[in-house]
Design goal:
Length: 94
Amino acid sequence: MVEAIDSFIHKATTEFKSPNMNINGVLVTDKNGLILASEDVKHDCSGPIALLSDMASTLFERPAVVCLENGDQKVIIREAGKTVFTIYTDATRR
């Protein structure tokens, strides 16, 4: 299973092209924050990411997408079953 996740992450970070988005890193954790796979993530924040995902799901009573953005970066967090996927991108400027 780990090889499948690593393959997916590598494919997403190298082959996904969009004029408005550049993927800088991907982090996959379980619901408790245990890192299952990661690529190009410079700091470990897996626990807070899993907690944010759980809190958003509790608030909306179903899996939710959490988007955090500062001036130049965006983090998109999505829970899928027992797994939390996080994508680090450049913030979109229009």
